[in-house]
Structures are given as structure tokens and as C-alpha cells.
Design a protein that fits this description.
alpha+beta; five-stranded mixed beta sheet; two-stranded antiparallel sheet; 13 helices; 8% strand; elongated; disordered N terminus
Amino acid sequence: MVGRLLLSVCIAITGVVSCAPPAFAGMPALDRMMIELATASAQSAETIRRVYQDHLDFLLLREYGELAGALDNGGLVPLPDQPLRFNIVPRLDGPHPIGEMDLANQSSYTAARAATIGALLEIASRVKSGPVEITSLVRHSDYQEELRTTNPNAITSVPVHTMGLAVDIGLINTPLETIYEIRDVLRRMQDDGDILFIGERKQLVFHVVPHPSRLGHFNEVYLRAVGAPLTSRSAAAHAFLDAPRLLPGRVTPQVTTEIIAMLPTEGPIQNLWVESPAEPELAADRPQSRVAIALAHLRAHWREMSGPRWLALLFAVASSALLVTRRPAFATLFDRSA
């Protein structure tokens, strides 16, 4: 009876069926889980800092214009259309939605590097008990600076969200059963070297970053699931590997490439194929080759000669006589006459 009364009051006040998110009743259990993950989360945070700090300047999105440009050229890719088909629910409204500080451009923040989205797709495909709620993807540095005033977790030496390399999985609206399953999936993928993740106790999210050695794999996951991104310009893909620390001693590197888009270019087409001139044949049984070489030398000497021209004529006659007498037919004739 009391339960029905509370439910009626809740419906009258809010117009919804439940007064609080499903995970609210499990807050003590959720807090204990985050405490248990604290040591592993600290280790993951240090690894993320170590393996990505050298690439911060290269991948950092400093302001909204850079973020929009990366979306335009394929450096960033959006969540797939109808994300629930992939067991993903982006938080677009309610408390702390994606892009909450720039809601006019919210769609720009539902994006990340292709490898990050690929990692998310693989995580969500392994969770069977319910959808995975996403609360944050890419940000730019100006957004990150503003967020630091309210979110202490935004204060970090390597803000991977501003590199498009992080996704936050929200827990507050998720049943405990699904939370535990997500945690177990993340643990297995981290043990396999696929991802790095941090349990953020204050924000109640799992902060997930693809492992640098698996960026290529997750890029392929994205391409297979979604296809090549629609872009107006071509884009480059980069992968990083902290090989001495993260891989076994012996590795055979391989590079696999695919054409994901063909775009028109501008300007005239230039033929860069250049054929080398054929070398003269120098076979011993081809005396005409010797004649050609001799004439070539004669022309060169003629151009360089500064004395009287009769010297060149004498040289030509002598050279021709020498070549003729060395031909087999003439040599036999001279032997008979002797």
C-alpha cells in the first residue's frame, strides 16, 4: 500500500513512472565497486598518460573550429545512425547530457576518432543485459577548460577527450546487473590488451580509451560496422605503439591499407612516367654497333675540337678503316691476297 502511494505521488509530481534512476537504490553497491576499482584505475590512468602524452600536440583539438574541421575531413566520425541498433544510447537530454555546455552544437560532440567508436561498438556488442549509455565523447580544449570548473576529473595532464580518444559510459541510469556486466566486459578487454579504462567514482562513469596497439583493429571494427565516413576532404589515420613496454620482444610489423574513398582532384594530369633511352648493343658479333659508338665519339670530339677540321676528318677515316678491317669478311679477303 505504501509503495503504491509513493508511486502515485511520484506520477503526480513528475509525470513519469519512477521517481529515480534504476541504479539509485544500488548506490552503496556502486560506490563499493568504484572503490574496488581504484587501484586498477590509477594504473590505467598512468598508462594512458604515458602512452599518449607525446601525441597530445598532434591530435589535440584546441577550439570548436578544429573539432568541426576534423568532422568535415573524416578525422572524427559520428556515432552510427540509430545507435540503439548497436546497443548504444547517447545521453542527449536530462542531467549532464553530451555537449551540455554547447547544446546548440550537440551533434558535433557525439563523435570521436574512428578507433574510439570502434572500441565502443565492440564493448556494446558484448553486453547482453541492456544498452550502454554514453555521456561524453570528443571535446575541444576550450570546452575542457570550461568543464574543469564543475568536473574535477577534467583536470588531467593528458585530456584524451580533446584528442577524440575517449568515451564515458554512464552508470547512474543503468541497472546494477548491466553495470556489473559492463565492468566485467571492460576488465576482460583490458586484460586482453584492447582498452584501458578508469572507474570515476564522483562522476559515476567508466572512462574508456582504446589501447594504442589496437587502434588499427578498432578502426577496422568501425569500417566493417558503419562503413567509410562521408567526408569532403581526405584524411590521414595515425596509430601509436609503445613497443618496448607493450609488446613481446619479437614482433613482425605489418601494414595493411585499404581505399575507403576516391575523391576528385584539381589541375592538369601530369604523366610522370619517364623511359630511359635504350643502351646501344655491344655484342661482339654486331660490328655495326661499334660503328655507331665510333660515330658518337666522333661527334663528341667534333664539338669539342678547336683545331683544324682536317684532324677530325683524318680521325674519322682512321676509325672507319680500323672497324672495316676487323670485320670477318674483310679480314678473310686480306688473308687470301697475302
